[in-house]
Amino acid sequence: MRILITNDDGIFAPGLWTLVRELKNIAQVVVVAPDREQSAIGTAVTLRQPLRVQRVRPLVPEVETYSVEGTPADSVILALGKLVTNKVDLVISGINQGSNLGDDVLISGTVGAAWQGYLRGLPALAISVAVTDSLYLDNGARLTALLAKRIESISLPTNIFLNINIPNLPLAKIKGVKITQLASESHTDTVEEGFDGKREYYWLMRQKVNTDADRKTDIWAIEQGNISITPLHTNPVNKPLPSVLNSLCSNLLQELLKT
Ligand code: MN
Predict the structure, then answer these.
(1) What local confidence, expressed as pLDDT, does residue 101 receive?
(2) Residue 249 C-alpha to ligand 1 middle, in angstroms?
(3) Which of 119, 149, 219, 257 shows the smallest number of beta carbons within 10 Å?
(4) Residue-number span of the structural domain to which 27 is assigned
(5) Residue 131 maps to which CATH number?
(6) Residue ranges of the alpha helices (H) in 41-132?
(7) Where are any strands of DSSP class E within 145-186?
(8) CA of 202 to the centre of ligand 1 (A)
(9) What are phi and psi of 129, to 5 degrees?
């Protein structure tokens, strides 16, 4: 199995390398990721300037690693279109430091990168941990490895594109795994004004809203201490079947506790 790993936190982010370290045990891993942090860049693609790529020394030995002067989505397009000549079986973006819940998925570079894999007919996972100072990245990496093994072993009748959020808790405190829907609102946007000594400036600020989220949503699942797995799709025909999701996700936490 060959796995392409990318992210939006930049090529040297700890979440990406925690994932690489774990997945290298079960697959051949290639890393193609932006050379700097690109959080909240969404699905942006660079069409009006050339892209430069550098082969860089990996933080985990013997992993083919490329740094891209471009967006997360650019990185996946370049990887699948040019850099990785062998067949890729799975695209994984993450582990992002910070949750991507509800309408976050529309601006998330983590999700934007995974989406390019999905568009090319590959199973794609976007993985996020629900804090920015991530203490429990290992849980996310081990969960992803379990899912990757399951994706390899069951034949998928539809494309799978999953947005996965993991609470920042020790494994023993995680309550369960929920297959969820996107919450309809997650943030309010406000504008702060300031003056830099020469000119006025504006900061766009996002604040999480506490929705009384219903029990089907990703926000509810995370707030209750669950791992949230949300199937995303762009076309009703490609909507993953509930039976596929159930076989991918059944007893995941139990199996994770055994690893
Ligand atoms: Mn990020």
Answers:
(1) 93
(2) 25
(3) 257
(4) 2-184+214-258
(5) 3.40.1210.10
(6) 72-78, 109-119
(7) 161-166, 177-179
(8) 22
(9) -105, 140
Query: Residue 201 has which token pair?
Result: 């400036």
Q: Is residue 196 included in any domain, yes or no? A: no
Q: Which residues sit opposite 158 in a β-bridge?
A: none
Confirm if 98 and 135 have CB atoms less than 8 A apart: no
Please tell me the predicted confidence (pLDDT) of residue 242. Answer: 84
Kindly give the distance from the C-alpha atom of residue 29 to the centroid of ligand 1, in angstroms, as a whole number: 21
246 Cα to the center of ligand 1, angstroms: 28
Before 95, cis peptide (omega within 30)?
yes
Is 127 inside a domain boundary?
yes
160 located within any domain: yes
How many structural domains comprise the chain?
1
For residue 65, the CA-to-ligand 1 centroid distance in Å is 19
Q: Is residue 207 part of a domain?
A: no
Give the pLDDT means over successive 10-residue stretches in the chain (259 positions).
98 97 98 96 97 97 98 98 96 96 94 97 95 85 96 81 95 94 85 96 86 83 95 80 88 90
Please tell me the distance between residue 115's alpha carbon and the centre of ligand 1 in angstroms: 15
Edge-to-edge strand order for the sheet containing 53-55?
53-55, 64-68, 28-34, 2-6, 90-97, 124-129, 161-166, 227-231, 177-179
CA of 97 to the centre of ligand 1 (A): 6
User: Ligand 1: distance of its center to the CA of 60 in Å?
Assistant: 21
| Ligand 1 centroid distance, CA of 155 (Å) | 31
Q: Is 197 left (phi over 0), alpha (psi -120 to 50) or beta?
A: left
